[in-house]
């Protein structure tokens, strides 16, 4: 072969290679589009997951705050109840002391003492019921935010 035909063959090979590369680039241009679509879809899904997780976390924190507020208020109510009961019992003891000081004999002292303790035992039973009722109310109030949230979640399912 002649030198010019060798150069024409070489030039044709280069042109063919270039055409193949361009054809591959054009065919491959769909690959970046599909990759971009997948990346965008992944970002969108991740953002949605993040928003759901953040909303759930915010709801948990809000429920904790409500529960802690209720527990704090309940503790204050229980403390006030105990103080009130203690004041009543102290007053009752002073009433006993006053009545004992006016007793005329030992029999009267024993009678006053027995009557006081019968009255005091009835009072203590009533006081225990008051504390139990208040404690149950505090427990229900403290748990209410979580119970409400659980009902909301069950309805959402």
Descriptive report:
- The longest helix has 72 residues, at 30-101.
- The protein has helices spanning 3-28, 30-101, 106-156.
- The radius of gyration is 43 Å and the shape is rod-shaped.
- The model has no long low-confidence stretch (mean pLDDT 84).
- Helix 2 (30-101) packs antiparallel against helix 3.
- 95% of the residues lie in helices and 0% in strands.
- It has one domain (3-156).
- The protein has 157 residues and is an all-alpha fold.
Per DSSP, what share of the residues sits in E-state strands of 2 or more residues?
under 5%
Q: Count the strands? A: 0
Low-confidence spans? none
Number of domains: 1
Radius of gyration: 43 Å
Structural class: mainly alpha
Report on the biggest sheet.
none
Mean model confidence by pLDDT: 84
H/E element order:
HHH
Number of helices: 3
User: How widely separated are the two ends?
Assistant: 81 Å
**Coarse morphology:** rod-shaped
Helical proportion?
over 70%
């Amino acid at each position: 072969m002649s030198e010019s035909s060798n150069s024409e063959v070489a030039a044709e090979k280069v042109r063919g290679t270039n055409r193949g590369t361009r054809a591959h680039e054009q065919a491959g241009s769909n690959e970046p589009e599909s990759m971009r679509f997948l990346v965008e879809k992944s970002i969108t899904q991740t953002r949605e997951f993040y928003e759901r997780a953040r909303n759930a976390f915010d709801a948990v924190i809000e429920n904790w705050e409500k529960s802690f507020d209720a527990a704090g208020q309940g503790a204050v109510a229980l403390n006030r109840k105990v103080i009130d009961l203690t004041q009543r019992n102290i007053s009752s003891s002073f009433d006993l002391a006053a009545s004992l000081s006016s007793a005329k004999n030992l029999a009267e002292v024993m009678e006053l003492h027995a009557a006081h303790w019968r009255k005091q035992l009835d009072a203590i039973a009533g006081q225990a019921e008051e504390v139990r009722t208040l404690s149950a109310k505090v427990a229900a109030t403290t748990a209410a935010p979580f119970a409400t949230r659980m009902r909301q979640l069950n309805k959402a399912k």
